[in-house]
Every structure is written in C-alpha cells, then in structure tokens.
Prior knowledge:
Helix content: 25-40%
Order of helices and strands: EHEEHEHEHEEEHEHEEH
Number of strands: 11
Largest sheet: 9 strands, mixed
Oligomer: single chain
Shape: globular
Number of helices: 7
Distance between the termini: 58 Å
Radius of gyration: 18 Å
Strand content: 15-25%
Amino acid sequence: MYKKPYFSIKEYKKLIHFFKKLEYKFVFFSESIKKNKNIILRHDVDIDISKAYEMAVIEKSLKIKSTYFFLTTSKLYNCLEKSNRDMIKKISDLGHQIGLHFDLSNLKKNSFKKNEKKFDLEKRILENCIGREIKTISFHKPGINGIPKGIYYNEMINVYSSIFIKKILYYSDSKGDWRFGIPTKDKNILDNKKSIQLLIHPVWWISKKKYTSLNNSLLLKSSLKNNYSDKFNYLQSYKKFN
Length: 242
C-alpha cells in the first residue's frame, strides 16, 4: 500500500539515515562526483534563516555536509542583519558550504551580461558574512530569461548544469511536495545506488509535527507568522506615532 510522505525533523533524520544505510557519501558541488553512491545535498533558503540554521545543526550531529544557498534580495529576510549574518556564519563554521541564491525574476529580458555587477555584488555580500569565497550559485524564480545551463556562471559553479540534474538523479521538495518522484522509492537509488542531487527547503521539515505535502502550508503560515511577530516587536519602538 502507498504511504504518504511526511515532512518533519524526525522524517528528515530518517531520510538522511536512508542514504547513509545505502553507503552514500555526502559531497559538495566542487568535488569530483562519481556515478554511484554520491549525494549532493542542497538547501535553498527562500523564507527563514533560523530554520536553515536548525537544519545545519542537525546535519552536523548526523556527520554529513551540505550547501546552503541564501538570497541577498529577499523580501523576507536580510542577510546583513546581525542575527541572520551570525547564523549564516555559524552554518559555514559547522562545515557546510554557503552559496548564492540569485533571484532571476529581478532581471530584464536578455540582460544577463549587463548585470554581471549585480552577481558580483551579491556574491561579495555573502563572502563578507562568512569570510570565505562563494563557489556555487543556484537560481530563484527563472523569470523571462530562463535558467542558465552552463557549468559555471560568473565564475561560480551552476547547480542547474546538466552534470548536476541530468547526468545524476535530481529530486526536490519544492512547494512542500516531492518533485520528480520520492527518492526513497526510486529503484535507481535502492537497487543501483545512482548518484543524486537532493534539493531540500528547510522550512518544510523543521517541525516536530508530521506534515504531509497537502497540509505543509500550515508550517509555512506558522513560519511567516513568527517572522511577522519578530518584525512587529522591532516596530514597538515607534509606538508613540500611533
């Protein structure tokens, strides 16, 4: 009988142990990727840096490494705000890599070459946060230009290059549901141990409750509510203007 996939801290740990039991080795994009038993664990941080940090700590306890991609143009968080900057630095210090999550929807049509300075600026912002070089880039919201497919983009490794999404398996939990199938059910993994890029968004998993893909919106609402509360507390200093 088909069993619905659940999303929670407990289920995330089970997912990691699934790959460890199959003797998968967790690697970075910058390493030599083998055809079998390699897993590149990737996290696009679209909403909440604190949940990314929680996941990074969990992964450290599980003795694995991954790459966290941050937006510098997010409307939901500011990488340069002290507590956020500190968490990004701590994630790096835990042994994970930090990458740039660039929002392509901000670019006009046919403007990639005209916006090289924007890529460089955002890259330097993250490098300033962690004190290390940013080597990888993932893209947020393809926009009218689509996603670049070359191996490198602005001297950063492009995680959407075919060597990471075609030559090896690719799975994603985008929008709180598994895309391209459920990795723990794939015979290419179970029987053949094919290498894989696995995209995980921390916001769907950092909860003690078990959410399905159908009600993961509850977790998102909770995260956004907490985000709003934090910002509202900051605004209390202006209450004299009420």
